[in-house]
Amino acid sequence: MPSARPVFVVTGPSGAGKGTLIKGLHGRVSDIEVAVSATTRPQRPGERDGLEYRFLSDEEFTRRVDEGEFLEWVKYVSGRRYGTLRSEMERIAADGKTCILELELEGALRVQDQVSGSVTIFIAADVPELERRLRERATESTGEIGGRIALARNQLEQAHLFRYMVRNDDVERATSAVAAIVECEMAFAGTMAPP
């Protein structure tokens, strides 16, 4: 009888390429689904509620925190809050899929402490590369980028707190490394379909 599916937590500083590597997993690993985070930040042009994020008002976010609906949540430099609703993880599990969470360091540590069998993967990149990626992304102001870089320096020093660390200095190589970790852990838990 198969074991419970592991929950994968991909973390690292802003600009490390967490989202890019997770997207790369979809062509390589079957039966995985990324949990959609909730946020209080404004919806950007082209984003759809429930697809990129679940967009909540400050009041709704606070109510759900107070009612214990979040597995984890964090407030960023920008003042916006992001979090993972327990119901999102339950939905993915009910669909028979393996849940992947893309979280910043603080949220990843909370999940690591609260979810038995969670598998944490820290994505690292050099600080100059992080800054370049953040500037190219053009979604934050110069002040926000400076705050994220300062935070990234601190986060890189905490990589040892996580089970795995993958350096994203080459997207193809890093995606292959993350896929190998996910496949190995799923096979170990007995949740990976035979080829």
What does this structure look like?
The chain has 195 residues and is an alpha/beta fold. The protein has a single domain, classed as Rossmann fold. Helices cover 42% and strands 19% of the residues. It has 7 helices and 9 strands. The chain has helices at residues 18-25, 58-66, 86-94, 105-114, 127-137, 142-156, 171-189; strands at residues 8-11, 32-34, 38-39, 54-55, 70-75, 81-85, 98-102, 119-124, 164-167. Strands 2-7-1-8-9 form a 5-stranded parallel β-sheet, with helices on both faces. A hairpin with a 5-residue loop joins strand 5 (70-75) and strand 6 (81-85). The chain starts with 7 loop residues before the first strand and ends in a 6-residue tail after the last helix. The model has no long low-confidence stretch (mean pLDDT 87).
Which terms would index this structure?
195 residues, five-stranded parallel sheet, Rossmann fold, alpha/beta
Describe what is shown at a glance:
The chain is of the alpha/beta class and 195 residues long. It has 7 helices and 9 strands; from the N terminus they run βαβββαββαβαβααβα.
List the helices and strands and how they pair.
Blueprint: E1 8-11, H1 18-25, E2 32-34, E3 38-39, E4 54-55, H2 58-66, E5 70-75, E6 81-85, H3 86-94, E7 98-102, H4 105-114, E8 119-124, H5 127-137, H6 142-156, E9 164-167, H7 171-189
Helix pairs in contact: 1-7, 5-6
